[in-house]
Design a protein that fits this description.
122 residues; alpha+beta; elongated
C-alpha cells in the first residue's frame, strides 16, 4: 500500500465462532515493515480465540434476556388487541337499530354516555 495511512505491516487472525460463523478478524497494523515469527503468530491466534470466547459468552448471557423480552412482548400483543377492541365496542347492528356502545371496560375512558343510553331512573 502506498500513501496514507502508510500501513506497511498487517497481520490478522480470523474470528470464527464454534458454529463456524465468521465474525471478522483480529489484526495488527504498523507503519513500519515487520515480520512475525511462529511464536508471535501463535500469540495473535490465541488472542483471536479469546476474543471469540468473550463474544460467545456475552451472546449467551444476552440471548436469554432478549428471548424473555420478546416472549413478554408477544404475550402482551393479544391483550393490547383485546383492549383496543374493547374500547371500540361491539359493531352497530343496522337491522335492529342498535347503536354502537362501548363495553363496560371502556366507559372510564369514554366521554359521557348519550342521554339515550343512560338507564332510566325508577
Amino acid at each position: 500500500m502506498t500513501g496514507p495511512p502508510d500501513i506497511r505491516f498487517y497481520a490478522g487472525a480470523p474470528l470464527v465462532t464454534a458454529s463456524g460463523l465468521r465474525l471478522g478478524s483480529l489484526c495488527v497494523i504498523d507503519c513500519e515493515p515487520r515480520e512475525l515469527d511462529a511464536e508471535q503468530l501463535n500469540v495473535l491466534c490465541n488472542f483471536a480465540e479469546v476474543v471469540v470466547r468473550e463474544i460467545e459468552k456475552d451472546a449467551a448471557r444476552v440471548r436469554p434476556a432478549a428471548r424473555a423480552a420478546r416472549r413478554a412482548q408477544l404475550a402482551r400483543a393479544p391483550l393490547a388487541r383485546a383492549a383496543q377492541a374493547c374500547r371500540a365496542g361491539p359493531p352497530a347492528c343496522p337491522q335492529l337499530s342498535v347503536p354502537r356502545a362501548p363495553c363496560r371496560h371502556a366507559r372510564a375512558e369514554s366521554p359521557a354516555r348519550p342521554q339515550s343510553l343512560r338507564p332510566a331512573r325508577g
